[in-house]
Design brief:
By secondary structure, the chain is α+β, with helices and mostly antiparallel strands. Helix content is 37%, strand content 17%. The chain has five domains: 15-106, no CATH class; 111-219 and 419-455, Periplasmic binding protein-like II (D-Maltodextrin-Binding Protein, domain 2, 3-Layer(aba) Sandwich), CATH 3.40.190.10; 221-227 and 333-416, Periplasmic binding protein-like II (D-Maltodextrin-Binding Protein, domain 2, 3-Layer(aba) Sandwich), CATH 3.40.190; 235-330 and 480-497, no CATH class; 554-605, no CATH class. The strands form eight sheets. A five-stranded mixed β-sheet has the order 12-9-13-20-14, sandwiched between helices. Residues 77-84, 88-92, 463-469, 536-561 and 563-606 have low confidence and may be disordered.
Length: 606
């Protein structure tokens, strides 16, 4: 066509076209194609990759497409002159029915339409070659060229996230040895690498240089200190607080006095010399702590006091045993060392990251000379054993791994940070997609499963095998009620006994015709209680008896006793009144009868 042909003439030429082409007959009517074309969708693949397995070489024929009906599974409708074409329309005419193989061998996943990295130019991922705790990133030293040589908690999270993306993302790990994490951030910022995969903490200043994904685990500052052993030579006094011991001793002495006062008038075991009375009373009260007393009480009112005291002893011994058992079996799991004490006493502390050192210096105000760098977890144990550090500052994920192995010897407190995440170049859309995939992994439990796989504590450090609270000494606040009840009952019994004693003393005064002043009455009452009542109890315990001494009585030949004057017999002379009293109180007189047999000189005693 000549160059000077006008556009109008060109349009007329096109509309007047009428020929058979590759896509069918081409002719126009009223400016439109007279026959709607039918297109076939072909999936072109690259079978140079070994993982591809296509039956038809480098392409795969899929559905057909028509402007009026969308995608069709076959062209049988065309042979039927379009009479029943609706029967051949796909169930969803807006989507392909055939299986599409997208770049990267993605199947059953529709890509977003873009993928910055490619097979020839994969995503360059920087990985810290030497981490403090190899549970997070593990790199095979001999060969670092293959992605399969990298493992660990962070690597597994990264691989699971890739499976959740809507597009293929070729990547290549690169391990960087002896490099600070801030330098890894800088390597991404200056586009030396596209991303960092590892135990990277989200910090506010790092957000100015890279794009972080959604955190996949929590992070924070943990102070780890050795657990101090609570063993002591005075461990046995720790179950009770000091006021409990004072109150227990006071109620014991008071009960001891009440028991002596009630039993002294009637019980001979609580009488005698002052030294004997004190010893008996002390032994009775203390042995009752173990329910090992042997003395019997005579007064019913004393039994009330002693019964209440036994109840107090039962409560105290049970509580003491339980508290002492806890102290001996449960270690102190909350540290008694705080940050202020460390700074005030210039104690040495350990850390293993440049960020952590900077945080200790700028935020917590530690002196630089008191901060010791620790390269890995094994060196923390050495530093603690050698006494080079008093405490270690770790991030929460590191602290979990450390305590999972050494929970019996160390404890910790925590301050929260932003968490662990992956870092991408600023403005990278991949970071957003990674965040979405991480949220999906969190919701369906995949991250929890990985935590159990990589961060599982040892059997001795399981939550059920340790506790988090220190056993405290029992205080008077929990027992003052039972002490008050015991003291009240003892006091009431004492007052009742005192009233009865005063009544008896008044009758004694009336019988003797004595009349004393108030002061003399008090002294007289005390003297009556200690002397007269004591003498009465002793008289009741040792009444006057009549004793007949041994008498030698010989028997005659007929077996009758010979009571002539030649046989000696001794009888004590007693008055009539004494004899009458003795009959009621004394045991039967013992008579010893001796029979002498002249024939064989045998002696028989009866």
């Amino acid at each position: 066509m000549a160059s000077n042909t006008s556009s109008k003439e060109m349009l007329e030429k096109i509309l007047s076209a009428d020929f058979e082409g590759l896509s069918g007959k081409v002719s126009f009517e009223e400016g439109k194609l007279l026959h709607n074309p039918i297109f076939q969708v072909v999936n072109v693949v690259d079978n140079k990759e070994k993982e591809l397995d296509q039956k038809k070489g480098i392409y795969n024929e899929l559905d057909f497409w028509m402007p009026e009906y969308g995608f069709l599974e076959s062209l049988d409708a065309k042979k039927g002159k379009m009479e029943n074409i609706s029967d051949f329309i796909s169930k969803n005419s807006q989507e392909l029915v055939g299986s599409v193989l997208w770049p990267g061998n993605l199947k059953n996943r529709t890509p977003r339409g873009w993928a910055m990295p490619s097979i020839t130019k994969p995503l360059r991922v920087a990985v810290p070659g030497g981490t403090q705790f190899d549970k997070f990133v593990t790199v095979v030293e001999l060969n670092r060229l293959s992605n399969e040589d990298y493992d660990g908690f962070c690597i597994q999270i990264f691989k699971k996230v890739l499976k959740r993306l809507d597009y293929d993302l070729p990547y290549q790990f690169s391990a960087l040895d002896v490099i600070a994490y801030d330098e890894l951030i800088e390597a991404v910022y200056n586009k030396t690498y596209d991303a960092v995969v590892g135990d990277m903490t989200i910090l506010a200043d790092r957000l100015n240089y890279v794009e972080f994904t959604q955190p996949y685990t929590e992070s924070g500052l943990s102070m780890v200190v050795p657990i101090k052993s609570g063993e002591s030579a005075w461990m046995f006094v720790k179950p009770f607080a000091w006021e409990m011991w004072v109150a227990t001793l006071a109620i014991l002495v008071y009960t001891m006095f009440i028991v002596w006062f009630l039993e002294h008038p009637t019980n001979p075991e609580f009488s005698g010399s002052l030294k004997k009375q004190i010893g008996t009373t002390l032994w009775f009260t203390f042995s009752s702590l173990f329910f090992a007393h042997k003395e019997r009480v005579h007064s019913n009112i004393t039994r009330v006091v002693v019964g209440m005291w036994f109840f107090v002893v039962f409560i105290l011994t049970a509580s003491y045993t339980a508290s002492l058992s806890s102290l001996l079996t449960v270690k102190q799991l909350e540290p008694d060392i705080d940050i202020e004490w460390l700074k005030r006493t210039d104690q040495k502390v350990g850390c293993g990251d440049s960020f952590m050192r900077r945080y200790l210096e700028t935020v917590l105000d530690f002196k630089p000379e008191n901060i010791i760098d620790v390269p890995d977890e094994h060196h923390y144990l050495e530093r603690f054993r050698e006494g080079n550090i008093t405490a270690a500052f770790l991030e929460v994920p590191y602290e979990k791994v450390f305590l999972n192995k050494h929970c019996k010897d160390y404890t910790t407190t925590t301050q929260r940070f932003g968490g662990l995440a992956f870092a991408f170049q600023k403005g990278s859309p991949i970071a957003r997609d990674f965040s979405k995939a991480i949220l999906q992994l969190s919701e369906d439990g995949n991250i929890t499963s990985l935590e159990k796989q990589w961060l599982t504590p040892s059997n001795e450090c399981l939550p059920n095998s340790i506790t988090t609270n220190e056993t405290e000494s029992l205080s008077l606040k929990s027992f003052w009620g039972i002490y008050l009840l015991s003291g009240a009952i003892s006091t009431i019994c004492f007052l009742l006994s005192l009233a009865r004693l005063q009544k008896n003393y008044r009758h004694h005064q009336q019988a003797n015709g004595a009349n004393h002043t108030t002061e003399n009455k008090m002294l007289g009452l005390a003297r009556y209680f200690y002397n007269d009542v004591t003498n009465t109890s002793q008289e009741r315990a040792s009444p006057t008896t009549t004793t007949t001494s041994s008498s030698n009585i010989s028997f005659s030949a007929n077996g009758m006793p010979n009571l002539d004057g030649s046989i000696s017999s001794t009888w004590e002379f007693v008055s009539t009144s004494d004899a009458t009293e003795s009959l009621g109180t004394s045991p039967p007189a013992e008579i010893e009868i001796t029979t002498l047999n002249n024939d064989n000189d045998d002696i028989t005693q009866v």
